[in-house]
Amino acid sequence: MRKYDVVIVGGGPAGVSAALSAKNSYPSKNVALIRKDMKPMIPCGIPYILFSLNGVDENILPDVPLTTNKIEIINGEAVDRKDHTLILSDGEEIQYEKLVLATGSVAMLPKIEGNNKEGVYLVHKEREYLERFRTAVHNAKKIVIVGGGYIGVEVADELVKAKKNTTLVEMMPQLLPTMDQEFGDKVKEILIGQGGTIITGKKINKILGETSVDGVELDDSSKIECDLVIISVGYKPNLELVKKIGIPYQEGKGVPVDDYLRTSEKDVFAIGDCAVKYDFFTGDLSNIMLASTAMAEGRLVGSNLYSIRVVRQYQGVLGTFSTKIGKTAFAVSGLTERRAKEKGLEYTVGISKAVDRHPGKLQGVSEVYVKLIFSTYSHTLLGAQIYGGDSVGELINMVSVMILNRMTDTDINTLQIGTHPLLTPSPIAYPVINATINAIVKWFK
């Protein structure tokens, strides 16, 4: 039997950040990380193994941060527990003082007739599966993608770049349903412009073929020929170990935890996709799963394993996403206009467009479109959506800090910012500030 002070189960972003934080916070403690995969994947990089990267092994989460910090890596699968001892699938026993569950999430398989046929793939995270997946994609002639969320559109973008005959089917009226309509429409326009076929507002009822895929049937009885189907309709918490060791959980939502990620057992913590998430605005249960959130939780729990050293500053998941389709980046943080309407909130929209260099004739310039959602009466920023050049990725991070700190229109309007012709929009046309001014003006009409 091996004994450790801290044992983390899960080798993804949450587990790695928890292990590093634990070692930084408690240098004298010995820390071990248990993971099933010899070579864990970078989750957000998986779509890019299909074209942009030369193979699956170019998307491996490196071990160097762990080994450099003398964190022991145990390649195995935890399948049971006796008191403070985990039992691995090969029978080995691992004893712990503190246990952190970071088991992540698994891809969902919808109830579609024929979903078990040869040629049907999910976007799993395991290296060996992804090797088979990549080979199948490269050999396929016609591919149908089920689901137009972030991973679905990223996979579609990779396939059309690879000149594959690609059709994406999304049952909602738009792509990227977590953003407002104009953003989903922009993504659709880009994918169609690259040669893809996009079908929205329809469902796939059946996957056709004897034993292997030769097409799909939609809910309007129309058929699409294909020899490969990629299903990307979301993920759910991986609760397999949790169920075996008797930690309370909520099916489809995860392990309930307190503000410091503690479960119902004082020495057991849960972080990342396997832990319950709560909406930043309402406190309702949330299905948002993000590596950035998982890593923030990992850092927090690693610091507070033996005592509360770091006070938790956030009380819910904001939901900050970014992606790039074609040459255009898209990002969202907080409430969209559609969600504000659904929640019955009184809101005001501010919109601005600007080029991200000044003057606009400089090389590499692109237009940035910003849409901000403000509370009409408190004037606080509730949400932001942006598309444009690569600067969008960091711009949304800045805006998410504004939302988390409940900044008002006046706060944003009086920001002191740094600008440069080669790096940013003009200070006169800075889009976040000008979108704020656009909202302010509406309050005086």
Overview of this protein structure:
The protein has 445 residues and is α/β, with parallel strands linked by helices. The protein has helices at residues 13-25, 64-68, 127-139, 150-161, 181-193, 240-245, 291-303, 337-342, 392-404, 409-413, 431-443; strands spanning 2-9, 31-35, 72-75, 78-82, 85-88, 93-101, 105-107, 120-122, 142-146, 165-170, 197-200, 204-208, 215-218, 223-225, 228-231, 235-237, 268-270, 277-278, 285-286, 320-325, 328-334, 347-355, 367-375, 381-388. Helix content is 25%, strand content 27%. The strands form six sheets. Strands 1, 2, 3, 4, 5, 6 and 17 form a seven-stranded mixed sheet that branches. A five-stranded parallel sheet has the order 8-15-9-10-11, covered by helices on one side. Strands 20-21-24-23-22 form a five-stranded antiparallel sheet. Helix 1 packs parallel to helix 7 (291-303). The model has no long low-confidence stretch (mean pLDDT 96).
State the name of the first-level CATH class of the largest domain.
Answer: Alpha Beta
Q: Roughly how many Å apart are the termini? A: 73 Å
Percent of residues in β-strands: 25-35%
Could you list the spans in which at least 5 consecutive residues all have pLDDT below 50?
Answer: none
Helix content: 25-40%
Number of strands: 24
Fourth-tier CATH superfamily name of the largest domain = FAD/NAD(P)-binding domain
User: The biggest beta sheet, please?
Assistant: 7 strands, mixed
Give the CA-based shape.
Answer: globular
Give the overall pLDDT as a whole number: 96
Number of helices: 11
Query: What is the CATH topology of the largest domain?
Result: FAD/NAD(P)-binding domain
Helices and strands: which structural class?
Answer: alpha/beta
Named CATH architecture of the largest domain: 3-Layer(bba) Sandwich
- Structurally, the number of domains stands at 3
What is the rounded Rg? 23 Å
